[in-house]
Design a protein that fits this description.
- With 332 residues, the chain is α/β, with parallel strands linked by helices.
- Helix content is 44%, strand content 19%.
- The protein is built from twelve helices and twelve strands.
- Helix 9 links the parallel strand 9 and strand 10.
- The longest helix is centred in the first third of the chain and has 29 residues.
- It starts with a helix and ends with a strand.
Amino acid sequence: MASHIARRRFLATLLGGAAAWPLAARAQQREQMRRIGALMNLTADDPEASARVTALAQGLQQLGWTVGRNLQIDYRWGAADADRSRRYAAELVALVPDVILAGGGSVVGPLLQVARNVPIVFVNAVDPVGAGLVDSLAQPGGHVTGFTLFEYSISAKWLELLKEIAPRVTRAAVIRNAAGPSGNAQFAVIQAAAPSFGVEVRPVGVHDDEIERAVTAFARSSNGGLIVTSIQPAAVHRELIVALAARHRLPAVYPYHYYATSGGLISYGPDTTDPFRRAADYVDRILKGEKPADLPVQAPTKYELVINLKTARALGLQIPDKLIAIADEVIE
């Protein structure tokens, strides 16, 4: 009898252990270390870059991914430099990541040149269809999908805001990137709207020496204003641009909140950090087996109006009460 009892205990232990094997295997699979490559278009020490990295990490953590436990993220910082972006794109692909996050439309091209099959999720890209990144927004096709920045029509809103805050403006310098289709398209929208606002517009290139020379020359005549479009490398040079606007007392409208928080007069555009939190969902779904081709490109869900009253006072401008009332943030 004792031998039968011992045998049953042995079998129970054996079978119990066998039943636990699938659970152990699933737990081990869950804790498998996955790898993300992230090529960002800013510099590593940029406060905006820190906000974007934090948003991505928070989004991933909410979905069960923790850096150091089941996830590794390799960051590279392109800093709006084409050569650097190409070099870092090759470095990231050599690390054999499961998915690559492209932090900005300008870094997707370099990645596509070397990442033939690696899934790519882009964030804050302008006109991904026109740029040839995806076949369509609803059905991206290929191995690329992500989040757009805004529609070109918003460009006319910048000119409208400039006239609201500075009615005397009859001339506007528009900082845009002539090398890319999005920069030209944004300028074209502003140019088309300019006659209805009684404003003559003039394009300015995006390289630092070109910006300073052109803005300084433009400011020699009166009734001038400044519009900064949503392109790289303007964001990298934002401190220079904001300083030039202050030095030459030019009312200026910017595309993102971080210009206004850096001293710019007013900004209107999409939230630039929230898409990184939303991108975590696509990264999660791809890591779990879904294909980028089946994940539609998403548009912004929130636009922000930020007004810097301190800068307005320095320029002697009275911001309309109706704008202050609808602003998402007012900097005193």
